[in-house]
Every structure is written in structure tokens, then in C-alpha cells.
Amino acid sequence: MSIQTFQILKDLPTPLSYSQCVLHKHELLFCGGVFQRACYSYHTLKNKYKFICSYPSTVELNGHCVVKLADNNSKDSNEITLLSFGGLFKHTIMMKYVSVWGSVNKKHKSKKKDNYNKWVPFTDNHNHSINFGRENDDYQGARAVIGGINNNLLFITYYPNNINVFDLNTFQFVKHDILPIATNNWIKFHCFVLKSNTKEERNDSKKKDNNEMLLFCLKIGLSIEYDENNNTFQFHQLP
Fold this sequence. Notes:
InterPro entries: Gal_Oxase/kelch_b-propeller, Kelch-typ_b-propeller. This protein is mainly beta. The protein is about 5% helix and about 45% strand. The protein has three helices and 16 strands. The strands form four sheets. The chain has a four-stranded antiparallel β-sheet with strand order 1-2-3-4, with no helix packed on it. Strands 5-6-7-8 form a four-stranded antiparallel β-sheet, with no helix packed on it.
């Protein structure tokens, strides 16, 4: 008698190719796909979808990246901020998201509708639009993680062998480096994750200032360490 390892879930209302997904409590948020602007929330307990919003008509999606920002000052755990950027046709926008499901949604109805669940420009403290990526940077298939002691650093890895660091508190570019990848290899639509520290490492002052990330693409495997105090990278090939 075989054990069913995988469960077939309900299909998305709109097929999304290369969609970006973010986990929030019991929700999986799907943020667009290649030339598809629709965004949905999938409730893992209900096995149902709800439409959130669409990307602006001015944004063409093809290989974009979406990350969940960490708000250390937020007292509302039901509210998160999503950052969407990059792609073949670069954009940098954000969304303040509150759950579209049930009682959580009703609690936030007193708040202005225009402030939530829609994509708006990503701006600094003076309301100036912020855009990631220089003119010649290829951000199609770029991947990013949030790190730093205060969860304020955005690490972006992108084709063919680049890594950037951007400070989300000061809205300043911090660092660029080249990944040690052979000339006939490159990264795009890759796997890029932040490695969680153990309790001992979090209490170690030296380890606390280091951000360790893992990157995988084709035959490439890298361990990436960033020293926040010295603004330096160390790279190690994985076996």
C-alpha cells in the first residue's frame, strides 16, 4: 500500500509562470508572473484563493523578484510590506498587505483602503521614488534576501555573477561584488536563501555581525558571508 506523499491542490485562477511567492501565516501570496499582473492569496487551511490586486498597467513582468520586508517597529503582525523589483523591464514598487481573509480583513476596514493591498512606488523619507539597478544591470531572474542586524539590508544576486547590498533604512547603495563563478557559468532564476543562525551564533558578537547566505544554480553552489561591520564578502565553494 503506497503512501501519498504529495497532495494535489486547487488550481490557480490564472496560470502564473515564474511567479514570486511569499509566505505569511496561513497564506501563500502569489505576486504576478510572466506578463501576468494578477496577485492572489492562497489559504493553506481552506485550500482556496482570493484575488488581492493587479500590478499597475505600466509594469511589465518578466523575471521579477518579490521579498517580504521586516518591520521591527510594527505592532501589527497581520500587516506586512512586500517589495517587488527587477525583471527584464525594471520596476521598484511596494505593497502594504493585510489579509484578504475573514476577520483579519474586517479589523482593517477602518483604515484607508488606498493604503493597503495595492502596488505603489517605493519611496524614501522625502517621497522620492527609489529604483534598484543601474541601467546596464540585468535584473531578469534576480533573486534577493533580507538580512542585517536590523533586517535592513537587501542582498540582490543577479546575472551573470553579481551581488549588491542596499540599505533599506538609509536608501543607499552599500556594496557590489563579483561572485567567484567560472566564466562559462552564470546565475539567473536561481535559488538564493539566508541561512538561519543557531542560538549560540546569535549570542556570539562576531557571528552576529555576519550574514550567511547560500546560492545554487545549475552546478554552482556557494556559501556567501557578509561582514556588516567591515562591509566585506567572503565566498566559499560548496562541495
